[in-house]
Design goal:
heterotetramer; A: 3-stranded antiparallel beta sheet; 3 strands; B: alpha/beta; Aspartate Aminotransferase, domain 1; Aspartate Aminotransferase, domain 2; 2 domains; about 40% helix; globular; binds pyridoxal-5'-phosphate
Chain lengths: ~140, ~425, ~425, ~140
């Protein structure tokens, strides 16, 4: 548990990177975690070709896990192509968090991934199978 | 559903020695109990409800004792543990029926609720005044009355496929009714009153050709033979845990995911919503949309263990075991004068359920005399009054077999019949 | 419902020493289990679902092992035995809630189903376009969404009694809504999200004066204080077995017999009929008319034993025990800076449920940190989103007490809060 | 069990007394046992005063217990007043049967009592509490 709230996570939670709502933006999606009602928005700016991410902002209130996960996830997005984002494996995000996430918190950890996928695919994205073991 | 799908298959590959019912009885604590008259319990009422193996009872006790909390949402170890076990049971059920995903498995109290769910949810959304739907004359009340109520409410017409003198669905009558374009065909895998194994593959094919969806009432088939909704191609399937060695209070509705997604909820409340305001609510994903309130958590877990017990035996072996017992019993009973046997003569389309009438002796008296011999059978209309009306009898006596039965039980049945006839002669 | 009926009564007669929660823990096998971090389990989530005493688990295992068969109609010893135990459980429930007769007790899966039954059966038969009905802003989704669905279907209007800043029903708002002549008032005995004990006696009196029937959602009150429908005078009452030390998969609807007699069935199928033909069906007597299919037999029996355990302790003593723990905990938590407590300050109208928010720390994180301390609490909207909306918070952390808790658990709660604040500071 | 089917019961079953449908009659009622679907009719003739039973017939198909019980019950009816019949205690009938009736068969044993009460009261009579332990 002190495991789960390693300094790394708490640091991202206290000082999240890329927090905010980008205006103007090219892509935008809102989604929520039904298990807790937390909501998150993701705004993206693209390069002239409309294929590569130049800037990203996430917003919304949530727990330490979801906020840290959004902070960590968005950190790696600049310069990525939309295709690369679409091909992302949710497991990689869980690995990057670097702490064991129990089944009850998987949706917290993967909310940012879900919202991001919604943004780059232009519509709600299903919870990854990893998060399906628990329901809202 | 391999076996019952193609009646006649499997002959020649019979393996009566796959397991010994006598030996399996030691798995079931109920057989430790002497009957009131001190005789060995000969339990021939599996079709009503089945005894529970020790493994299932221990799983239930252990779940209540050491792994119990409310499921979903609980952010602590015990709740995560309970949730994992509950969802593992859903996956076990999914594999058992051949579902594409555990998300196609909705837990209900029993087969009856599963069917009512479809009638209320799918039925009220899809059946309109003037529409027709089809069931059969050999159904359990659970597969008749919900449709009567639905059709009355929406102004649709309910038709029934008639049955032959030997208890089979009349294929010509089925075709004739399908020609009227019913929206849904609701049919049992196995008749609990006659033992008939219906030709489901054929029925599904014909119904789909006629544009109808098919609901299979598998309450009496799933416990006794392989079930494979993918191979069968049906649209809905209902079963009850208590008839397949599992706990009471748990049943299953399987439905194709697109159907579940499109259906409105049935009961509403906690767990089945994503968002509630004073103005309205949004529904959760399937299957949770259909599971309002705290589910039958431990009962689902117990059903999972019952399925493990059955799949360890092998559902093909279970079917062969009961087929063997059926043949022995059918042959023995046919020898006894004054015994009228119902249902088909062909063992390929007759499950381990034998319904019979003794000349001049009321089935209630038969069951009471049997009870004094330690033989537990059911007497009555078996919740299938239209079958009784079809054969113009008030009731039958019914003996039904399961994994713990063996040829000694067949002999006990035959001798109880003789004892009864002697008493009333 | 003696205690919660007249808030304020019982003061002075408090008997905190009636029983020791610490000692009772030895009755519950779950407390033998060390938590993942090796700490003692401090279970503070009774409001979601309660652990089971060994007595209840043993009754369930014994019923499955030695007294199990399908109930009703079975003309053999084992089925008569199972039926007698099942019906004895019904009588036990009837005594527990103060019903006039066991025939007023309908078994359902949970409180949610009991409420849905009333919404579908009584509601669709009695609520018309233009009618109003009333619930409150502090209800569990189970006592909101079924009424939203019903009112949408029939074209009636659903109103909500608003709540005060300290989580009580606003009496003026209640009177104002009653003046509009609702047909039904649906209200919780105790709020699971705030702990508020509602003044049911007063509400029932006012509602009846206004010509409304009253449904009490007793899911959160029946486990924790005396229930007496006769004294209270309400018309319907719903509860869940799993929250009162009983099994999952069993709940109860109590309703006055005349109401049950007049109501159409909800689900249909076996057992709830007297006669079925191809043209229609006649319904069985109450309560069987509302129990379609094989009931949750052993779960009902287990609930009966849970009630025996509770009545051996005495429901007045249970209430006093929890009141004492509430007072200790409320005082301790009020001392801790950064803790915001929800619900009424007065222990006479606050059950053993404490909902709180820690400044700057999300309830999910709170629950996770608590878990590492062995403290099991719930975090979320508690299936009462309108309460969260009312106080403009996404969620709360909730600690709820029961018979096996004691002041050591109160201390564990307070120290877990401090640990959490330290981690996030 | 051989208990339940003592010669006394079997004798009444094989040769039931008062079997048949009286035509004309003064009182008539039909009822059924939902647990088995058995139906029974009861017809009564009264004296000129309309208060005392002069003749009785029961009809219908059923099990040995219900038939024997009807045979035994009707045997004692001639000369009884309607008030006496209304005051009858179902326990007395169970006693007269003289064999232990298990809960599953109580409705069989009490069907004749229920039909008779329906006839003398002019409308369906509830199952006596004795029979309520089992449902249809
Ligand atoms: C006040 C209240 N009502 C209804 C319910 C629903 O109970 P169940 O999920 O057992 O149907 C709950 C359970 O949380 C509750 O607390
Ligand atoms: C064919 C069939 N369908 C449905 C049912 C109803 O099952 P349950 O009472 O468990 O809902 C039964 C049980 O007897 C059955 O045999």
């Amino acid at each position: 548990m002190d495991n789960l709230y390693r300094d790394f996570i708490l640091e991202h939670y206290r000082n999240p990177h890329n927090k905010g709502f980008l205006d103007p933006h090219d892509l935008h999606f809102d989604d929520s975690n039904p298990t807790c009602g937390d909501e998150m928005s993701m705004t993206l700016r693209l390069d002239a070709g409309g294929e590569t991410i130049t800037d990203v902002g996430f917003d919304g209130r949530g727990c330490a896990i979801s906020q840290a996960s959004a902070s960590i996830l968005t950190d790696g997005l600049r310069g990525q192509s939309l295709d690369q984002v679409r091909a992302m494996n949710p497991k990689d995000l869980l690995d990057e968090l670097g702490v064991p996430i129990g089944p009850a918190r998987l949706k917290c950890a993967l909310l940012s991934y879900k919202v991001l996928q919604g943004a780059v695919r232009g519509g709600e994205f299903e919870w990854p199978a990893e998060a399906e073991s628990m329901t809202g | 559903m391999t076996t019952q799908m193609t009646p006649g298959s499997g002959v020649g590959s019979r393996i009566p020695g796959a397991f010994s019912g006598t030996a399996l009885r030691t798995d079931f604590p109920v057989f430790d109990r002497p009957t009131g008259t001190g005789k060995r319990l000969v339990y021939l009422d599996a079709a009503a409800s089945a005894p529970k193996p020790r493994r299932v009872i221990e799983t239930i006790a252990d779940a209540y004792g050491h792994h119990y909390a409310n499921v979903h949402r609980g952010i602590y170890e015990l709740s995560e543990d309970a949730t994992a076990r509950f969802e593992a049971a859903r996956a076990t059920v999914a594999r058992f029926v051949g579902a594409a995903s555990p998300r196609e498995i909705v837990f209900a109290r029993n087969a009856t609720e599963a069917i009512n769910l479809v009638a209320y949810s799918w039925g009220r959304a899809n059946l309109r005044a003037g529409d027709r739907m089809l069931t059969t004359q050999l159904e359990h009340h659970a597969n008749i009355v919900p449709w009567q109520q639905l059709c009355r409410e929406v102004g649709a017409t309910l038709d029934y496929v008639s049955i032959t003198d030997d208890g089979r669905l009349d294929p010509d009558d089925l075709r004739a009714h399908l020609a009227n374009g019913p929206k849904l065909v609701a049919v049992a895998g196995v008749s609990n009153a006659l033992g008939t194994i219906n030709p489901l593959t054929e029925i599904v094919r014909l119904a789909h050709e006629a544009g109808a969806l098919v609901l299979v009432d598998a309450a009496q088939s799933a416990p006794h033979m392989p079930t494979d909704v993918a191979a069968l191609g049906c649209d809905f399937l209902a079963l009850s845990g208590h008839k397949m060695l599992g706990p009471s209070g748990i049943g299953v509705l399987w439905a194709r995911r697109e159907l579940l997604e499109a259906m409105p909820p049935f009961m509403t409340g906690g767990s089945m919503i994503i968002k509630v305001t004073l103005d309205g609510a949004e529904w959760n994903e399937v299957p949770y949309k259909f599971e309002a309130g705290t589910p039958a958590i431990v009962e689902a877990i117990g059903l999972g263990e019952a399925i493990n017990y059955l799949t360890d035996l092998g559902m093909d072996a279970v079917r062969e075991h009961e087929r063997y017992l059926f043949e022995q019993a059918w042959a023995a009973l046919r020898e006894i004068p004054g015994v009228r046997l119902l249902g088909p003569d062909d063992p390929a389309i007759h499950a381990g359920v034998i319904s019979f009438v003794l000349d001049g002796i009321h089935p209630h008296d038969v069951a009471t005399v049997f009870d004094s011999e330690g033989v537990a059978v059911r007497a009555g209309h078996h919740c299938a009054q239209p079958v009784m009306q079809r054969y113009d009898i008030p009731a039958t006596t019914r003996a039904s077999f399961y994994v713990y039965n063996d040829t000694d039980d067949v002999e006990a049945l035959a001798s109880a019949i003789r004892a009864c006839q002697n008493l009333f002669s």
